[in-house]
Design goal:
Layout lengths: L10 H24 L2 E9 L2 E6 L3 E6 L13 E7 L2 E7 H4 L12 E7 L2 E7 L1 E9 L18 E7 L2 E6 L1 H5 L12
Parallel strand pairs: 2-10, 5-7
Antiparallel strand pairs: 1-2, 1-8, 3-6, 4-5, 6-7, 9-10
Length: 184
């Protein structure tokens, strides 16, 4: 095998190929970012259409017996026994100042995990699990009823109505929610 010398390499050509690969990689990353989507579980609360990222949702449960705990905020419905673990259940209808109506058989509890926080959230019904392109998310309106602006990540017009994307991590770590669930 002949020994390679500096004359055997075309440095300019190699640098040009490296530059082209670099720019091609940047363009592909940009395309991937444009095409990024998030997966949401969508549900109804007080006839409004909401969604949270599925990465926070651990499971969906039929409503078991909820034991009321004295001296807790009104939006803490109580606790449930989930396979030996005590899990608090919150009602966003009350926290958001929405109408509270009788629950139908389609009502569910979505168990949520955000960092060290694990709790259940009551919803009136599960609608769907969808993939949503991130670029479809619009800034939230300033007037979203009694919902704090920090609790809303954005909104997306859908066939079912305006989808309000909740910032579940901010909700669970908020001052209002402090002390209403177990950490760990």
């Amino acid at each position: 095998m002949p020994k390679a010398t500096g004359k055997d390499y075309d440095t300019a050509k190699i640098l040009e190929e490296m530059r082209d690969q670099y720019w091609k990689g940047l363009a592909e990353e940009e395309e991937e970012e444009k095409g990024e989507s998030i997966q949401l579980i969508t549900f109804r609360i007080a006839n409004e259409f909401y969604g949270i990222e599925t990465s926070y949702a651990k499971e969906v449960l039929k409503i078991p017996k909820i034991v009321r705990v004295p001296h807790t905020p009104e939006w803490v419905l109580g606790v449930i026994n989930l396979r030996g673990s005590i899990v608090s259940v919150i009602d966003l209808r009350i926290l958001f100042g929405l109408a509270v109506s009788e629950l139908s058989p389609s009502a569910r509890i979505i168990t949520l995990s955000a960092g060290e926080i694990y709790t259940g959230m009551l919803v009136e019904s599960i609608v769907d699990i969808i993939n949503l392109p991130k670029e479809d998310i619009q800034p939230a309106l300033e007037t979203m009823g009694g919902i704090e602006k920090d609790f809303i990540r954005g909104q997306v017009p859908q066939e079912e109505g305006l989808l309000i994307l909740l910032n579940i991590e901010t909700i669970l770590k908020s001052r209002e929610m402090e002390g209403s669930y177990e950490k760990g």
